[in-house]
Design brief:
Elements lengths: L12 H11 L6 H22 L8 E5 L5 E3 H17 L2 E6 L6 E2 L8 E9 L10 E9 L20 E7 L3 E7 L4 E7 L4 E6 L10 E3 L10 H10 L10 E2 L5 H11 L2 E4 L10 E2 H14 L3 E3 L17 E2 L1 E4 L1 H10 L2
Parallel strand pairs: 3-5, 11-12, 11-13
Antiparallel strand pairs: 1-2, 3-4, 5-6, 6-7, 7-8, 8-9, 9-10, 13-17, 14-16, 15-17
Helix pairs in contact: 1-2, 2-3
The structure holds 6-O-phosphono-alpha-D-fructofuranose.
Length: 335
C-alpha cells in the first residue's frame, strides 16, 4: 500500500546530532549548537549557489583573497554567511577561512570552546561553469584553559574533533565524521529544509582503478610521481589501464573517490614545492573523512596527512587521498 512505501523514521542531521550528544554524558550541547550553525550555513550557501546564475551573482566581485585567487561574488557571500553563522552560534572562539588572511577571533563569545577552519566555497573557479563546488570544514576543541589562540588550530589533523564537507551538486550532500568515528552522509531535502541521513557509515572501496590528478602539471612532477602515474596507464592485472577522472573541484573529486574508490592526488611539484591544497581546510578535514571511511591520506613525502602540523594558517601540502590499497601503491613508488 502507499503508506508502506513511506519512511516515517527519518533521521535528520538535527536528530543525528541529538542522538550523538546523548552518547556523551559529559556533553554540554555546545558542539550540537555549533553544528546547527554549521548546517544552516550549508543550507544558505546552497540556496545562493542555486540562484547564482538567475540573480547574476556570477562573475568577479572585484576583490582578491588571501591566496590571490580572483574572488567570485559567491565566495564573498559564502564567506560572510559562514562567519555570521559561526559568530551567532556563540560557540566558536576563532575561525580560519580561506577567504580571510588573518584568523577571526570572536572575542565576545564567553564560553566558546571551538576553533573552526573552513573553505566556504572550494572550487569556486568552476562556479560559472555549473560544476559542483563545496564547503570544507574542520573543528578543533580549544585546549583546557585556552581563551582561543592560533595554537588551538595549528594542530595535526589527528586532533580534529570533527571534519567534513558539503558538496553542492544535484542536491547538497553533507559528509561528516567525528575523530575515531564513522563517516555519515546526509542529503539536503529542500522541502523539509533538513539534511536527511542517506549514507550511514560510508566505507571507501579498498581499491579501484580510477585516478584523479591534473595531468597539466605532469611536466613539473618529481620523477617518482611521473613513474607512478605512468604505471597506472599500463594495462593492469585486469587487462585494462586505470580510468582518469578529474573535475578540478576538490569536493567533487573527493566525493566521487569516497563513493567509488580510487586515488585523488594533488602532488607537490617543482612549480609548487609545498603543493597547492591548504592543510587546515582542505587536506586535513578530507584526510580524517577518508581514514574514518577505511582509506588513507598522505603528503608528498608519504607522511600520514593527519600527522602534518601546519606552521601558518594558509600552509599548503601535497596530497594523495583515496582507497587503502591505492595509497599503498603510491607509497611503493615514493619510497
Ligand atoms: P587545478 C580549486 O581551486 C582547488 O582549490 C580545489 O578545489 C581543486 O582540487 C584544485 O584547486 C584544482 O586545482 O590546479 O587542478 O585547477
Amino acid at each position: 500500500s502507499e503508506t508502506a512505501a513511506i519512511n516515517t523514521n527519518i533521521v535528520t542531521l538535527t536528530r543525528f546530532l541529538t542522538e550523538e550528544q546523548t552518547k556523551h554524558k559529559e556533553a554540554t550541547g555546545d558542539f550540537t549548537l555549533l553544528c546547527h550553525a554549521l548546517q544552516f550555513s550549508f543550507k544558505a550557501i546552497s540556496h545562493y549557489i542555486r540562484r547564482a546564475t538567475l540573480v547574476n551573482l556570477t562573475g568577479l566581485a572585484g576583490q582578491s583573497n588571501a591566496t590571490g585567487d580572483d574572488q567570485k561574488k559567491l565566495d564573498v557571500i559564502g564567506n560572510d554567511l559562514f562567519i555570521a553563522a559561526m559568530r551567532s552560534s556563540g560557540k566558536c572562539a576563532l575561525l580560519v577561512s580561506e577567504e580571510e588572511e588573518e584568523v577571526i577571533y570572536f572575542k565576545d563569545q564567553g564560553g566558546a570552546r571551538y576553533a573552526v577552519a573552513c573553505d566556504p566555497i572550494d572550487g569556486s573557479s568552476n562556479l560559472d561553469a555549473g560544476v559542483s563546488v563545496g564547503t570544507i570544514f574542520g573543528i578543533h576543541k580549544l585546549e583546557d584553559g585556552s581563551m582561543g589562540t592560533k595554537e588551538d588550530i595549528l594542530k595535526p589533523g589527528s586532533e580534529l574533533l570533527a571534519a567534513g564537507f558539503t558538496m553542492y551538486g544535484a542536491s547538497a550532500q553533507l559528509v561528516i565524521t567525528m575523530r575515531g568515528g564513522t563517516v555519515n552522509g546526509f542529503t539536503l531535502d529542500n522541502s523539509f529544509g533538513e539534511f536527511i541521513l542517506t549514507h550511514p557509515d560510508m566505507r571507501i572501496p579498498k581499491a579501484r582503478a580510477i585516478y584523479s590528478v591534473n595531468e597539466g602539471n605532469s611536466h613539473y612532477w618529481e620523477d617518482n610521481t611521473k613513474e607512478y602515474f605512468s604505471a597506472l596507464k599500463l594495462p593492469q592485472g585486469s587487462g585494462k589501464p586505470y580510468s582518469a577522472r578529474y573535475i578540478g573541484s576538490m569536493v567533487a573529486d573527493a566525493y566521487r573517490t569516497l563513493l567509488y574508490g580510487g586515488i585523488f592526488a594533488y602532488p607537490a611539484d617543482k612549480k609548487s614545492p609545498k603543493g597547492k591544497l591548504r592543510i587546515l581546510y582542505e587536506c586535513a578535514p578530507m584526510a580524517m573523512v577518508f581514514e574514518n571511511a577505511g582509506g588513507q591520506a598522505v603528503d608528498s613525502k608519504m607522511n600520514r596527512m593527519l600527522d602534518v602540523v601546519p606552521e601558518h594558517i594558509h600552509d599548503r601540502s601535497g596530497i594523495f587521498l583515496g582507497s587503502y590499497d591505492e595509497v599503498e601503491k603510491v607509497k611503493q613508488f615514493h619510497k
